[in-house]
Amino acid sequence: MPDYVVEWEVVTPGQILSDEVKKAGSHTYIYGGKVYSAVTGVVSFRTDKINIIPAKGPYRPQENDSIIGIITDIKPNMYEVDLGWHVVGLIKSKSKKGRTSFKLNIGDVVYTTVRYCGIRGVFLESGDGLKKIEKGLLVMINPVKIPRLIGKKGNMLSLLKRETECQFYVGRNGLIAIIGKDSKHEFAAASAIKLIEEESHIKGLSDRVSALIRKILFSEVEENE
Questions:
Q1: Cβ atoms 180, 165 nearer than 8 A
Q2: Which of the four CATH numbers 2.120.10.30, 3.30.200.20, 2.40.50.100, 3.40.50.12710 does domain 10-54 have?
Q3: CB–CB of 167/134 below 8 Å?
Q4: Which terminus, N or C, of the chain has the lesser number of Cβ atoms within 10 Å?
Q5: pTM for this structure?
Q6: Which residue would you say has higher pLDDT here, 144 or 191?
Q7: Do strands 88-92 and 78-82 pair parallel, antiparallel, or not at all (unpaired)?
Q8: Residue 61 in 3-state DSSP?
């Protein structure tokens, strides 16, 4: 039975994707024995499923998500963390014995994971599972573009690291921290990330990302000469 779409093809709601109902993945639905797209987005084949990555969408926390957030309030026994998209996470600041294992201030940027999300709220890992990011550049993209930023088997993220020589902390909530050896390399990385967000559905993205980074970095070298 045939598929009617290919990887990274742009689809619209109601568009037929496949005759095989077993291939129905995220953001799809089955009707009359066929698989259709439920949203506007791009096609992504994963684990023998046809998934649709929505063109836009808010962040919906899931347990074990890696996230980046900003401390916005300090309570007697916990910190409130802005995760963007009107989502607030909570970090317990004291252990069961009442001891404070770390100290954060309003405005601090943290990288951690979601420990629990449900009716009680969104609770984040603390202690060894939390890292405070104290330098670098912070950028935000739509959360649905994060899988494309990472790429298959991490290929796109590896390309960014190799070309820019920067370190990246990628949050599933769409926030990315870039730490480079100087502001020029961080700017090149940020520009490449924005290109990925805007052109994730167009073929040849890796080549365009590499070209943009090299254009920015080489032009800076030529100016210095």
A1: yes
A2: 2.40.50.100
A3: no
A4: C
A5: 0.79
A6: 191
A7: antiparallel
A8: coil
